[in-house]
Amino acid sequence: MVHSHSHARHADRPAQAPVTATVAELRASGHTYRTVRDEIRQNLLRQMRAGEERFPGIVGFGQTVLPQLERALLAGHDTILLGERGQGKTRLIRTLSGLLDEWTPAVAGCEINDHPYVPACARCQRLASQLGDGLPVTWRHRSERYGEKLATPDTSVGDLIGDIDPVKVAEGRPLGDPETIHFGLVPRTNRGIFCLNELPDLAERIQVSLLNVLEERDIGVRGYALRLPLDLVLVASANPEDYTNRGRIITPLKDRFGAEIRTHYPLTLTDELALIRQEAEIAWGGAEPGATLPEHLIEVMARFTRLVRSSTAIDSRSGVSARFAIAGAESAAASAVRRAALTGEAEPVARICDLPPVVTTLRGKVEFEVSEEGREEEVLGHLLRRATADTFRAHLGSADFSGLLATFENGGNVESGELVPAADLLARVGEVAGLAKIMQRLGMEGGESPGQAAAALEFALEGLYLMRRLSKDVVDGGAVYRT
To answer: pTM surpassing 0.90?
Structure first.
């Protein structure tokens, strides 16, 4: 659901395209022409019948958004996805290129990828009449048939549709020659999928230029009597808030989208967890390995995100992006790596002490209600403690902590902090009866690992404090747990 990934999902593209050099060879191969809509429809139905995954990497939309999107694609509709920030709209749109044929023929050298059987632009029509069966053919991979533009207020009609190319005019071609046109992004994605992100940010006079593309499937450039039949699927994204306030989609354009689909944040904790696991980059690879992020910390971050979304202190209209949880998980892992680098700890494992510092870095991702001005960190800190307590109750609510509490019987205390290595924390607590069972309940393997043991132990200490069975003094960069 998150949308910071490469457009071309099919990095595993085969080494070779089909070997066909002319339109005569293409006909001899038995190739038949299909519109993009037919292509998507037939490939989608084939994948559905085969039980294949149609939208890889998309989490939490299986019963809600995806059935609606599949219906829209089968109907051949242009679609607009409406949803708050960070709901994976762009990420979902980018998976659609996987529904195109792996390779498709085009007239060699054509700027708008005309099909050799049905040339549309003036150049290809001229070449087809001159060369006949010798019209040269090239092959395009599906990853090259996806176009995307972030709609910004300075986007022009020339950017999207096209304009006169002064260089071609300077070369001596007459102004009336349609081959003097420099095509914009939309016609250059002809015979593919074009995504227009944040559509309401597009100036209204520019939105008008898309009306013909959506309904009549053609474009007009300047004063040219140019009817260019385009074959593409247009998908747009918008924030419902923008829809009404900051900008708006003009009514005729809204009417020409065949389907309007609402996206949403993960509906369940399970989906939220799956999303963080899938998207958070904590295993960096290379010479510097990332940290281990225990499952209970991922769950705390997921619960924290869900509490922030539902909090009355947060401006719900702006939403709380899925990037909030992902960035939080990555920052907690980075905190463990920093501790290991500064203290010489052998194995970086994130602990509960790595979460509070993350709150300050996540603050900018959330819009607060005006009444909460100045209390932002206090609100987030409170919600993080609630998320920690909920996770503790879910996994360790009925655990036996007598062995751990015995450490504090004679007025002992345990100091921890983001720069306290795992071995030091374990030494300060001493031998704890029942620690293996606590780790087991948290789903942690590798009982021999000091980092994992310290992570489980510190989570138990924090949980006991939140359940009011221990006290905690917050000191600079750490905490002292005592009875």
So the answer is: no
